[in-house]
Every structure is written in structure tokens, then in C-alpha cells.
Amino acid sequence: MIIDWKKIALEKYNEVKNHIYENKLNINLKVILVWNNPDSIRYIRQKEKWASFCNIWFELIHLEEETTQGKLVEIIEKLNNDSETTWYLVQSPLPRHIDIDEVIEKISPLKDVDGFHQENYWKLAIWKNSMKACTPFWIMELLDAYDIDPEWKNVTIIWRSNIVWKPLALMMINRGATVTVCNSKTKNLNYFTKTCDILISATWRPQMIKKDMIWEDSIVIDVWFTVLDGKIYGDCDFESITKNWNMITPVPWWVWPMTVAMIMKNLIRAYEIQN
Amino acid sequence: MIIDWKKIALEKYNEVKNHIYENKLNINLKVILVWNNPDSIRYIRQKEKWASFCNIWFELIHLEEETTQGKLVEIIEKLNNDSETTWYLVQSPLPRHIDIDEVIEKISPLKDVDGFHQENYWKLAIWKNSMKACTPFWIMELLDAYDIDPEWKNVTIIWRSNIVWKPLALMMINRGATVTVCNSKTKNLNYFTKTCDILISATWRPQMIKKDMIWEDSIVIDVWFTVLDGKIYGDCDFESITKNWNMITPVPWWVWPMTVAMIMKNLIRAYEIQN
Questions:
Q1: Which residues of chain A lie closer than 8 angstroms to B179, CB-CB?
Q2: Could you list the residue range(s) of the whole structural domain that residue B159 is in?
Q3: Residue B56 to residue B87: CA distance in whole angstroms
């Protein structure tokens, strides 16, 4: 069975749109772009498109690639203090000369719709209401949409980044799952992929996960993609796995609408906290 | 082989004592006690004893059990602003009418020698230098003292509390381990205990972990204890396991000196940050 996350994303957008309409909310979203890479621009276009769909006023703050750390922090502090700016985010990835951790530290936790700030990170860890890191957030919402309860389940996560996979592990632990986090130094990966109920992979290694590495009833969430010779590949060998009985997400181009939908959900949450 | 953490704790105290002596540091530690339970008092006596050993000036702030949340927060804020108070901690557990998360939020991250504050939590998660939660901290130091590198190892943690086991999972992940966090809703616990290289247990269920649940070369760290009819039991059936070939910590009464040693190490770290 193929998980239809395009349909679920659309449901989420409609929820947000209706909420904004019914409560007559005046919400804006600013996106700071420093690094001019094509993927970031494509991603920002998605944010603009869906913000407009939800009646959220959108603005792009496009900075030069040479922008210094000091200048970026200055702009962030201005936005923190600007009552006209309800929420904003800094588009990652950032150029190499920028220290992303310092940037995240400077963002006001109340305006942090990406859910990256330490206060939101900590609240997510201890299971308090907060703005949630958007990728783990949509994974949980996707499972909820299919009535899949993580409790009593074995969950294997392949990867361990700060702003995505560690928060996902924490969310899964909070929901009662038994969670294993694997990385490039896992000595027996097959062992953990084969025995879990839910597998979430973001290795950037195209088609690394084959059918024989997965239990046939497992749920496979393939989060990232690699482009090779103009063709998009996920981490999982989709064709061979779908011939089996697993539930699987399609090649993850469509990760973006779900992530963007979660930004919109965080906007609503941020509005509730501030008003 | 039995891990000699009494010896290692003593080494850590001597390190701290020498560091304070050589650098002529003037360090104090205050402990706020709200709940008058015998375990807390015994624990605080350990803190006092070892602070004195290291030449750290110690003060107990003993509050009434009926102290309100508001009053406790007021005292914390006073300590935050008091330049004479270098560091302090609030002894847990707290009475039921106190919201521990709010208390932690109020402690200045610079004076937080327990490593519980959100800033220290986040820095630990993203592997930046910080004051570290003391129980996970000593587990890492214990492994280091025996030259056991978590990289490439499978680590199983049984339990999932906010201030101890989630930070431990994050520290282990940062060090390259493949980490599984189990809880009371793990459907096949034996499976995860039997296949790991390092097992860390804090279930409070006396002697729950038997010899046949563990691989004979694994390292077993038994963190908590239960007192039954005046006798102390760990989570692990120590007798049967030590007859095997495993490395194991003894029945964990001696967890305290290690935890307290880590508070002292955090004090040194806190001093470096502030000066």
C-alpha cells in the first residue's frame, strides 16, 4: 500500500485555511534566504504557494550570499523586536561561513515556526506543547492520519541529525515506541531494519534499502531523495518493496508539502501562544 | 569483571580538588531542599562531604515542605541574581504540588550544575560544550575510564525519563553508538537486552534482568536500586550475571559518589564559562 501523503498534506492545508478563516486571523510569514541554491528556492516557492492558499501573508527576505554572521544576527534581532512580523524562519542550508547553531539561538522561540530554538527543542523532548521541528512533526501526523499508534511498536530511524532525527526519536519515545537510532557506524543495520514495525530512512544513499532488508508488514517512511542523471531516487528500492505487502511512502519529492503544512500548523500554534 | 566505580569516583574527586587548588578557585555550591525525604537528605550529605573534600564551600537552603511554587521560584530568581552564589541546584524529587519543569526553566543556565536547564539540554543534544545532566555524564565517564568507546556499539537503555535517559540516549548517539531506548511498552525486551554490547538499566524492578537475558560479553550498567526488607537490590540479578563473563557495575548504592563527582565537574565547567 502506498501512503498518500499528497492527500494528507492537502487535508492539513484545508484545516489551517479554515482555522484562519473562521477565527479571522491576521498571520504573516517571512522567510530569510541567504544561500541562493536552486533547491532552497524551489522549496521557498512551495512555502509561498501554500501560505497564499491558507491566506497567510508571505514575504521573502533575500540576502546576499556574502552576508556575514553579524549582519544575519542583526536582521534576526530586528525581526524578533518587530511587532509587525508575526513569524519567520531562516531557510537552511546556510552558506558554510554561517554558524547555524548561533543563528538558531538568536531566533525568538515565540516566532520560531521551524521549531529549531532550544526552548522548543526542550519542550518537544519533555512532551510539552510547543512549535515542533517540522519533519518529525509530519511523520507523526502521517502515522496519525493512518491510525498507526507508535505505542508498543519497534521503530528504527536511520540517521541522527540535530534538527530532524534526534527530535523524531524523542517524539517517538514520548509516544511509547521502542526506538533505535542507527547511523553510518551501525555494525548490523539489516538486523534493525528487518525487525522493526516502522522504518524511517534518510541516508541519501539511493535505493540502499532493499526488499530483503524489511519485514513484509512494516511501514516504511522514505524521507529524502537523491537526483541521479535527472531521475529522482529515494533511499528505498520502491519498486521491489511495494510488490511486497508493506505500507510505504512514495519517492519523497512530496516531502515538501507535508513539511510546509507543518510550518502552517506551527503558525497557528504560535498565534495561540502569543494571543 | 566488576566495574570499580568507587575507585573511579575518587579519581574524579581528586581531579576536581587538584584543579581547584592549582587554580586557586573560589567556588560555592548551594542546595535547595524542599521535600524532606530521607533519601534526599542522605544524598545531600554526600554532596556536602565531597564538596568539602574538594574545597568547595557548601550551603544547604532548607525550605518547608509546604513551600509554594511561587515562593520557590522567587528564591531561585534571587539566587540567579546573587553574585555571591556561584552555583546551586534544586534537590529532586520535589513535593507533588511543585511543577518541576517550571522550576528548571527558571534556573539560570549558567548556575545550573545539574545540567537540567533547556539551554544545557539543547547543547548536550547538539554536542556542544555545556553543563551535562549528571547521571548520563557519569555513565559516559565510566565507560571512558575503562576505554570503552561507544562508537560501533549497540547500546540498549531501559527507561525514558526526561532528565536522565533521554539525555543519555542523545550523548550515546553523539558518540556514534546505535541506541535503542526501551520502556514499559516494549513488546520484546529480551531481544534488545540480548543483542546489545552495552546495557543500561533503571527499571526499579529488583533483579528483573537475569543472566539469560544478556550476551556474555556485554557491559551491564545497573543504575538504580530498590530496598526490600532492608536489603538493597539492583535491576540486575548480580550474582548470576557476575558468574558469567560480563563487565558489570555492583549493586548501585555507589551511584551517588559518581553523580556527585559529575556535579563537581560541572562546577569547574561553569566556572570556566563565567570567567
A1: 180-181
A2: 134-256
A3: 11
Q: Is residue B18 part of a domain?
A: no
Residue with the three cell numbers 545497573: B222
pLDDT digits (tens, 9 = 90+) for B58-115: 999 999 999 999 999 999 999 999 988 888 999 989 999 999 999 999 999 999 999 9
d(CA A121, CA B169): 15
The CATH number of the domain holding residue A36 is 3.40.50.10860
Q: Hunting for cell 566505580 — which residue is that?
A: B5
My answer on whether A153 and A97 are in the same domain is: no
Q: In CATH, what number is assigned to the domain containing residue A191?
A: 3.40.50.720
Q: Judge: A122–B126 Cβ closer than 8 Å, yes or no.
A: no
Phi (first) and psi of residue A33, to 5 degrees: -110, 120
Amino acid identity of B197? D
Q: Name the minimum distance, in Å, from the CA of B121 to any CA of chain A.
A: 7
Q: Do A150 and A175 form a contact (C-beta atoms < 8 A)? A: yes
Place A270 in a pLDDT band, splitting at 50, 70 and 90. Answer: confident
Task: Residue A181: list chain B partners with CB under 8 A.
Answer: 169, 173, 178-179
Adjacent-strand bridge partners of A60: A31
With contacts defined as CB-CB under 8 Å, which chain B residues touch A116? none
pLDDT tens for each residue of A222-267: 988 888 898 888 888 888 888 877 888 877 666 678 889 999 999 8
pLDDT score of B254: 61
Residue A269 lies in a domain: no
pTM equals 0.93
In a domain, A265, yes or no: no
Mutate to test the interface with B, among A178, A182, A198 (most CBs of B within 10 A): A178
Same domain, B80 and B185: no
Smallest Cα distance from A122 to chain B, Å: 6
